[in-house]
Structures are given as C-alpha cells and as structure tokens.
C-alpha cells in the first residue's frame, strides 16, 4: 500500500477507481488531496479507542495521532464534550484489586471491557485529564493513560521514598505539563519534582516556606488539583490538631498556606471542584442542603459562599455525598450505601431536575451491603450481627479522554 492510501472494509463493491471489487473491499483509497488540517479536524472528534485502531491505517495517520499538536487538539475537543463520570473503587484489603469504572454523561455504564483493574497494594496519587498516577507498595511510581491503556514507569527519585514522604500529581494548563511532587519528610527544606517526559527528578529548595508548621503533622485526605493548583488538608500536631489548607502552584512551583474564611476547616470538611473552582464542603446536616466556600480567585484569596439545595426525596439518599459538577453543569451526588450496584444522582440546578443511574460493581464488592462511615469511605457489615468486615473507598472524578502517548511502542499496561 502506498503512502496516503488505506484499505477499508465496506459494503460497497466498487474500488477507489469506480470498478467493482469481488471481495467487497475498497482498495488503495487515496486521500493525499485532502488537506492535512481537515483530516486532523475530523479525527480529533473521534473517541480515543477509535484513534488507537486508526494508528494502524497508515504511517501518516500514526504520526498524526501521536503529534503533540493533535494530542492537544483532541484533548480540547474532549474537554468540550460532556465528560464521563469515573469512579475509583478500592478496598484496603490486600486481596482485592482497585478498579476504575465509568459511566457516560447520561449515566449509562461503559462496557465491562472498559473497566480497569490496577495492581494490588497500589495507591492512586491523583488523576488529571485521563492520566492516573499510581504508586505501589514498593514505592514504584507509574503514570497510566486510562483512555489508551498505555503506561510509563517513572524513574526513582534521588532520595529513596520513605513512609512519611508525600506524593502528589497535578497538571499545569499553562505549560501543558504533568508533574509529580514529592515532599521529603526527613528534609523540611527540600522537595523534588518530576515532569512527565523528563529523564530525571529536580530538587528545589523552599527555605521561605514552612510547609509542616511544626515537627509533627500529617495529611489525612486525598489531594485535589484544580486549575493548575494542588490542594490538600493538613492536620498539624503542633497546632492542637488544627486543620490547615495548603496549596502548590504546579506552574510556578510555589507553596502557599491558604486562609479559609469563617471557622476554617474541620474534620468533616472535604475538597471538591465546583464549576471550575475549589470548594470546601462539609457533610450536610439536614441531608439536602450543602454550604460551600468557593475559592473564586486563588492569587487574591477571594472566597464566596453558596448554598446548594439538592431535590432528593426521603427514599433517595439519607446522607448524600456531594462529589462536584460535571461538564453538563449538573451536580453529581454519591449514594451513602450500596449493594450489588452503585447509584449516582445527577441534579440540574437550573431546571431542578434529578435523575439517577446505576453502575455495576467490581466482583470483590459482591452482593453484600456496604454503608458509608466517613467521607467517601464505606464498610461492609455482616448479615446478622452488623460486625465490620471490610472497608472500601469510592472516589469520583471527571474522566476526560486523552491520547497522550506514554510509550514509544504503544504497548498497554493491563
């Protein structure tokens, strides 16, 4: 087959020159006369799974689909589409794998073959634009592309990762870069950064910022990256267990302690993304109403207050979890219990319309009853005595398709 030609299965019986073909295949379809930018524009609208197959059509398409400009074009197209809802469902029990499951914007579950299982004893550091950063129990860090199933292993940092070190994953929209940040617990003036695509880690000094606020501290909730800034909650043992909000600007690579208005943060506070902004939320006292503090301007620390009223009935969810907003503008609510399947609720704040969807659970959840006991964490209880059996976590995220190549050979990781 020549350059700019492809063999395509079709129901037609004519060749590219208009002659009938006995085997019903169109052979040597030329497209050199089609402008390359037009080809790119059409292909960018296709789902990632189709593009992965189309890399085999010809060398021209393979090069185009891997081109950084086209990767960015496809990502922008994906961001403008109603994104899928992703759930990371995992159990602390070492016998169980963690799983990524997906549902489209209408709540319809993706095919079972789209469910992704990650290795046992692994921890997800963060998810950004369809890339998941994962570290295993041997402190080996990898980045997985949830759309293409490609992965890359990150070189080990100069200093060995220790138990008290903290790792976070974020995206810099200004430079279009993904970074892993390592906080060195044994050296309070140093931290290390790895930029995806680089060959080695960089060590940066932070003499003018005391992240720890004392000799004893620990972060007790998962970090979140919003608009190029990583946020996480830190409980300081040196400040009578006071909970502070800290941030890291992924582009400027600067730390900052963020002042939260009012009474600040408490044990039941949670960090989510609402309409593109960081929001601090607590569990609803009455079930349907949530009080939010939204960070509208990060650089000037401008906060606004908002109350979200979810039209849930008494038979829907007793203690709902507000998970954030979707690309459709809807609010996503997680159920407080599940058995056999997991329920999602979508609330349109303008029309006050509420819809629900069910997602089948990975096999390890079984048909047993699970009930939320803290934030996004659930416990499994016995049928008769109500005793605690296993604990699990369910975290939601906005899944954006991404075709960023992570391996030159294009081999998958699962």
TrEMBL record:
Annotated InterPro entries: F-box-assoc_dom_typ3, F-box-assoc_interact_dom, F-box_dom
Domain called F-box: residue spans: 28-73
Pfam families xref list: F-box, FBA_3
Location of region: Disordered: 1-24
NCBIfam families in the cross-refs: F_box_assoc_1
PANTHER family: BNAA05G37150D PROTEIN-RELATED, F-BOX ASSOCIATED DOMAIN-CONTAINING PROTEIN
Protein name: F-box domain-containing protein
Source species: Populus tomentosa (Chinese white poplar)
The organism's taxonomic lineage, starting at the top: Eukaryota, Viridiplantae, Streptophyta, Embryophyta, Tracheophyta
């Amino acid at each position: 087959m020549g350059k700019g030609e492809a063999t395509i299965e079709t129901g037609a019986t004519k060749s590219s020159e208009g002659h009938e073909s006995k085997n019903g295949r169109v052979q040597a379809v030329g497209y050199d006369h089609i402008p390359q930018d037009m080809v790119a524009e059409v292909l960018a609208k296709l789902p990632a799974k189709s593009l992965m197959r189309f890399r085999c059509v010809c060398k021209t398409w393979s090069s185009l689909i891997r081109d950084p400009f086209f990767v960015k074009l496809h990502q922008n197209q994906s961001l403008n589409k109603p994104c899928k809802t992703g759930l990371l469902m995992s159990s602390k029990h070492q016998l169980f794998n963690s799983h990524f499951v997906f549902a489209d914007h209408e709540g319809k579950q993706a095919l079972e073959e789209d469910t992704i299982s990650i290795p046992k004893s692994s921890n997800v550091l963060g998810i950004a634009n369809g890339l998941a950063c994962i570290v295993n129990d041997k402190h080996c860090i990898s980045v997985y592309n949830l759309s293409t199933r490609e992965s890359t292993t990150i070189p080990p940092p100069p200093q060995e990762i220790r138990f008290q070190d903290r790792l976070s994953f974020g995206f810099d929209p200004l430079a279009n870069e993904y970074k892993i940040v390592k906080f060195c617990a044994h050296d309070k003036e140093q931290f290390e950064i790895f930029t995806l695509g680089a060959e080695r880690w960089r060590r940066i000094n932070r003499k003018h910022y005391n992240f720890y606020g004392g000799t004893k501290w620990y972060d007790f909730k998962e970090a979140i990256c919003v608009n190029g800034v990583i946020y996480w909650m830190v409980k300081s043992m040196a400040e009578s267990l006071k909970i502070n909000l800290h941030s890291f600007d992924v582009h400027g690579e600067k730390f900052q302690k963020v002042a939260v208005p009012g009474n600040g943060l408490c044990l039941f506070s949670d960090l989510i993304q609402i309409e593109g902004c960081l929001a601090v939320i607590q569990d609803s006292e009455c079930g349907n109403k949530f009080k939010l503090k939204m960070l509208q301007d990060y650089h000037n620390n401008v906060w606004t207050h908002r109350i979200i009223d979810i039209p849930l009935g008494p038979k829907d969810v007793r203690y709902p979890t507000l998970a954030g907003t979707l690309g459709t503008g809807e609010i996503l609510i997680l159920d407080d219990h599940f058995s056999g399947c997991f329920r999602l609720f979508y609330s349109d704040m303008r029309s006050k319309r509420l819809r629900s969807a069910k997602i089948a659970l990975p096999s390890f959840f079984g048909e047993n009853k699970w009930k939320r006991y803290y934030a996004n964490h659930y416990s499994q209880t016995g049928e008769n005595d109500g005793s605690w059996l296993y604990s699990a976590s369910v975290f939601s995220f906005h899944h954006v398709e991404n075709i960023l190549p992570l391996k030159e050979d294009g081999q998958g990781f699962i």
